[in-house]
Amino acid sequence: MNALLIICLVIFVLTLVSYLLNKVPMWVTAMISLAALYFTGCIDAAGALGGFANVNTTLMAAMFIVAAGFRRTSLVDAMVNGIMKVTRGSFKLAYLGYLIIAVLLTNFISSPMVVYSIVSTLLCAYLDKNGYSRSKYIFPMMVVCVSCCGILPLATAIQQAGQNTGFLETYGFDITYEAIYPFMAGWPMLIIVPLWALFIGPKFLPETAPLPIAAKEEAKQKQKALSPLQDKIGIVLFFATIVLLIFSGQLGLETWAVALVGSLLMVVFGVADQKTVLRDVPWDMILLYVGALALGTALTNTGAGEFVGNKLAAMVGGTTNSYVLGFVFFVIPFIITQFMLNRAVSAVFMPICLLTCQALGANPIGLMFLVGAGSLTAFMTPMATPAVPLAMADGGYDLKTIVKGAWTISIIIPLIYIPYVMTIFPAF
What we know:
Strand content: under 5%
Low-confidence stretches: none
Helix content: over 70%
Number of domains: 1
Order of helices and strands: HHHHHHHHHHHHHHHHHHHHHH
C-alpha cells in the first residue's frame, strides 16, 4: 500500500465524517477536500479542476435554468390543474402519476439527472401550489429516476446492451448481452420502487426541510409575468430540449450541448428571468458535485477504490455459489458508488466481474446486470450521481436526511434483486 493511497483514504474518511456532522456547509467541505487532495499530490490540477468542465456539471446547471424558465410558463399551472382535475384532488393518485412519468422517461433518456430535472419541475409546482412538503416527496421521486433507469427494452437499455456486449467480446466471451435482459432481471423494480416512493419513502423524511430551499424562496418574490409570446417560446424551448435529449444518440448530439443551448435561449428570450437566472442555479450543490468528482478521481488514480473493491471481493474468492457471487458483485459496487461516480464504478467493476467469471467458468450475464444495478443504487450521498445534489437543492436536504430517507429502499433492492436475478440468470 503506497503513501498516496493511504493519504487518499484518510482524506476520504475525513470528508465523509464532515458531511455527516454537517458543522460546515457541505460545499465548503467538498472544496477543502479538493484542495487537500491536490496539495497532497493525490490528484493533479486537471483532476482537481476537471469537475468544472465535466459534462454532467454543465448539464446540471443548464437543465436547472431550462427548468426555471419552464416553471414560469402558463403550461406548468395548466398541467398541474389538469392533474388535480383528473385525480379529483387525490394527492396519492397525482403523485403516482408523476412517478409513472419518471419511470417512462428514465427508460428513454439515459441520464437520471435529466429525467429528474424534467419531472421535478412539474412536481415542485404541484407540491408548492397545494401546500405539500417538498422535503417529503422530492427525494423518493429522485430514487425512482435513478433505480428504474434502463430496465424497459427502450433506448437506454439498448445503448447499455451494446456496451456490455463490447465488454463480453473484449474478455473473450462468445455471447451477446441482449436488450431484453435488463427487463427480464429488473421488472420487479418497476413496481416495487414506485410503490416504495408512494407509501414508504415519505414516512422517513421530514415535513419541514432541514435547509432553506433557495428556488422556493425565490418564487415568493414578485416577478414580472411573461408576455404571451415569451410564454409560447418558453413552452416550445422546453419541449424541444426534451425531445432532442431523448433522441440525442440518434441525432449525434451531446446532451450537455442540447441543454446548454436550451438554457441560453431561455435567457435570450427572457423566459428565464435575466436578473435572477444566476441565482436560480444551485451553485452550492454544483461545488459539492465538483468536489465529489475530484474525490472520485483521486480514489481511482491512487488505486484506493480498486484496493477496497479487491479486498472485499477477495473475502469470498473462489466460491461457486451463484448467490454469494451475486451478493459480492451487487453490494461492493453499491457501497463504493456512494462515494464515486456510478458510471466510473461500473466501468471499474465490470472487468473485475468478467475476469472472475473467466477464472471460475461462470455465466456472466446475471452478474453483469447486478454490477450495473448496484452502481445505480446510488442515492445515499451526493457523490454518486448529479441527480442527488439537484434533489438536495429542491428538497432542502442535508446528508443525514437523505441517508435516513434512503436506508429502507437500499435494503429492499438487494434483498429482491440478488436472489431473483441469480435464479433466472445463474452463474453456474
